Structure formats: C-alpha cells, structure tokens
Amino acid sequence: MKFATIIGGLAIGSAVLGATAASAQEVNVYSLRQAFLVEPLFKKFTDQTGIKVNVIFAEKGLVERIKQEGVNSPADVLMTVDISRIAQAVDAGVTDAVDSDILTASIPAHLRDETGHWFALTQRGRAIYASKDRVGAGEITRYEDLADAKWAGRVCTRSGTHDYNIALFASMIAHHGAKDAKTWLEGLKSNLARKPQGNDRGQVKAIKEGECDIAIGNTYYYGKMLDDPQQRSWAEAVNIVFPNQDDRGMSMNISGMTLIKGAPNRENAVKLMEFLVSDDAQKIYAEVNYEYPVKPGVEWAENVKSWGTFKADQLPLTEIARLRPDAIKMVDQVGYNE
C-alpha cells in the first residue's frame, strides 16, 4: 500500500495526518484515485479556502483501514471509483449521510444516493471498441449485438468478475431480467476469441494484433492510449462505439465520494465535497482522466468532445449496486472465465 500526504500541494510524511486530524483548517481524504488526478483539485481548494487537504493514497484496502481505525480514524472523505467500491463502503457502515442543497442540485438523482451516503464526481462509459479494418460502420451498435453468432471467436474482454464488467452485466439484468440476461451472457461467452484476461487496454491491443475484432472497454482508456506513444497505434486501430444510442443509451459508471462516519473535520469535509462539484473542479477533474463531468452543463475536454456525443443510460447506480450479487452469480453459472 502506498501512502502520501498532500497539504496545500506539498508532500509530507503520513504521520502528520493522524496528528492533525481535528484541526479546524484541515480536511483528511483517503483516496483510491491516483495522486495526479486529485492534487490539482486539492491545491485549488486550499487556495480558495485556506483549508489544507491531507491525503492518504492507496490502491486498495482503505475501507478495511477505516473499519480497523474505528472511532479513532482521521478520515473525513473517501474518494474511489466504481459503484461497487462505493457500495462496499456503505455496506461496511463507515459512511455518513450529507444533507447539502449544493450536492443535490449539482448531481443528477441517478448518480447519487437518495439518502446522501455517496455522490458521483465523474462518469465513464462502458463502450465497444471495434476494428477499423474488420468491422464495418454500424455493424455493431448495441450491447445485445455482442451475443450475435456472427461474432463467434471475434470478441475479447477482461475477466467477467471485474467490477467494470459486473456493473455492465448488472445493467443487463436490470433492463432485460435475469433469464434473458443470462442467455445474453452465454452468447457473449460463446463468442469470445480467448479466455478473459488482461485489462481494458489489453483488449484493444488484441484487436490491433488481430486476435479479435471487437472488445468492451471504458471510454477514458481511449484517451490514455492516444496519449501513450507505445499504445497510440492500438487506439488508432479501432473505432469507439457508443452502444444503444437508439434506445436506453450507453451504460455508465463513476468515480465518487462519501463522507466518513465520525469525520473529525465534518464541516470542512462537506465544503470540499461541495467544491468538487463546482464548475471549475468538475472541468479539471474530468479533463485530467478523459472522463465526463457529472454536473450538467460543464463543458467536456476538447479531445473527449472529438469522440462524439452520446446518450447515457439513466439507470440509477443504486440499482446496479443492488444487482451486483446476481451478476456475479451469473458469471459463475455460465463459466464465463473458464
């Protein structure tokens, strides 16, 4: 686990975080998001308010850490990705409700908890990547198409039990019911070109190398690949397809935030959360990782706009979180990863 503390943009030892937990001019953040994504935001917040932001960064395990710390936890805010990880924090009983007119006015209802225990910050779509050379325009337009026998031996995905895919599968259950969703997942499995493996970028690489013709991946990886000289050719080999534009829209997931129960700097924590949905913060946060703002009306980054506009699925993320256990069970039932 990696630890760092950022105070007004300066790195110091993490021991300070516990020692200064209850200072009136500080707020403590536990973040599963990488430092480069959040440091510009926290610096701007400190510049505007004078409130220092102390941060612990980790790749995993922060909810468990908060539970172990109990009433002595210095954590005020948890920042993470994917509705599954947010639901994990809520289910663990470490979050608290926030009653804020600013948050509820800024974030659409389907992207926040109705009881105020979590709020989305950015969105990313679960897109389809299609080979420019081997898949014609309009040949695949819906998630449902992935199960069509015409794609037999032509589809690549990462593990079916990865949070990103579980969220998509849960959305299929929500829209089609368990029986039809299972039939679809069986069809998708039968079309796989190889055993599920790697990450989202690895699937696009496989298209470039001719191992498959279509894949599922988050939208923001397209920008990351284009920015990486070693991966640019992968992105240039595919078209990014926004699925289900003639019906419900593309399945979306989020990065988000929660207030920690017993937060020692609760007032400052709420100020930070409200700052993160301001127009400026939303634009900065979304731009740096090629994501989409959750606040309506905030302009997208120019390179993200160049990929085109799309209709987003309005399915409440609370419904996706509720159906996650069913989706995980379904993956096992069809032997998706075998």
In short:
The chain is of the alpha+beta class and 338 residues long. 39% of the residues lie in helices and 18% in strands.
Characteristics:
338 residues; alpha+beta; ten-stranded mixed beta sheet; two-stranded antiparallel ribbon; 14 helices; 18% strand; globular
Task: Show the helix and strand layout.
Layout: E1 5-7, E2 10-12, H1 15-19, E3 26-31, H2 35-49, E4 52-57, H3 62-69, E5 77-81, H4 83-91, E6 95-96, H5 101-106, E7 119-131, E8 155-156, H6 163-176, H7 178-190, H8 200-208, E9 214-218, H9 220-227, H10 232-236, E10 238-241, E11 252-260, H11 266-275, H12 279-288, E12 292-293, H13 302-305, H14 317-333
Parallel strand pairs: 3-4, 3-5, 8-9
Antiparallel strand pairs: 1-2, 5-11, 6-11, 7-9, 7-10, 7-11, 7-12
Helix pairs in contact: 2-12, 6-7, 6-14
- The run of helices and strands is EEHEHEHEHEHEEHHHEHHEEHHEHH
**E-strand count:** 12
Secondary structure: helix percent:
25-40%
Distance between the termini: 30 Å
Largest sheet: 10 strands, mixed
